[in-house]
Amino acid sequence: MRSLLLLALVSASAYASFDKIKDSIQNPLARGFGDDIAWVKWEDAIETALDTDKPIFLLIHKSWCHACKALKKTFQQSNAKKAFKKLSEHFVMVNTEDDDEPFEEEYRPDGKYIPRLLFLDKNGDLLQEFKNKKAEYKNYAYYYSSPADILNSMKDVLKHFGVDIPEAKRGDKLKPKKPEGKKKEL
């Protein structure tokens, strides 16, 4: 019985390791934030942005960070995945982890905390006006814990650059039809 239990534990561990390896092979730059996103290395981001005339989405996080892991998990489980994928097509998407982070002070406008999400123009300059409007911590304006807040900032950046995203527009709210009452006959 013990050997069967041990075999089951080893198999489960190997399967989990295989999934992690498989994910990193599919898209090593995704780091759990979406294999279907066209992530670019930080070193290539500005050149790619200049070539494609797109703003840069710069996610800075650490593999050991609890808040970073929580954000990643929220994204994996949220209904925002489809919208994130669609909006990402209009950005040069950069996902830096651990030592990949840019170390210039420009990319630490209000501190070295993580996770940080910065929006940059195609030259790599920080777009300071695009911060988390609903930030829980006012001293950490580039900290996002909600996919909805990230999507809203992405839409704001695209609007700033005149990019029209039909899928991101919301039509008039549907108004419930009033039930037609019986007409009184005279």
Summarize the helices and strands and which ones pair or pack.
Layout: H1 2-26, E1 39-40, H2 42-52, E2 56-61, H3 66-77, H4 81-88, E3 92-97, E4 116-120, H5 147-160
Parallel strand pairs: 1-3, 2-3
Antiparallel strand pairs: 2-4
Helix pairs in contact: 4-5
Explain this structure.
Helix 4 runs parallel beside helix 5. Strands 1-3-2-4 form a 4-stranded mixed β-sheet, with helices on both faces. The termini are far apart. It is built from 5 helices and 4 strands, in the order H-E-H-E-H-H-E-E-H. The chain has a single domain, classed as 3-Layer(aba) Sandwich (Glutaredoxin). The protein is an alpha/beta fold. The protein is globular, with a radius of gyration of 22 Å. Mean pLDDT is 79; it is low at 16-24, 171-180 and 182-186. One of its GO terms (cellular component) is endoplasmic reticulum. It comes from Caenorhabditis elegans. This is Thioredoxin domain-containing protein. Residues 1-16 form the signal peptide. Keywords: Signal.
The value of Rg in angstroms is 22 Å
Q: What number is the mean pLDDT?
A: 79
What is the CATH architecture assignment? 3-Layer(aba) Sandwich
CATH domain class:
Alpha Beta
Which band does the percent of strand residues land in? 5-15%
How are the strands ordered across the major sheet?
A: 1-3-2-4
Strands, total number: 4
Please work out how many helical segments DSSP would assign: 5
**Biggest sheet features:** 4 strands, mixed
Shape: globular
Give the proportion of residues in helices. 25-40%
Q: By CATH's scheme, which homologous superfamily applies?
A: Glutaredoxin
Keywords: Signal
Organism: Caenorhabditis elegans
InterPro entries: AGR/TXD (IPR051099), ERp19 (IPR037462), Thioredoxin-like_sf (IPR036249), Thioredoxin_domain (IPR013766)
Signal peptide: 1-16
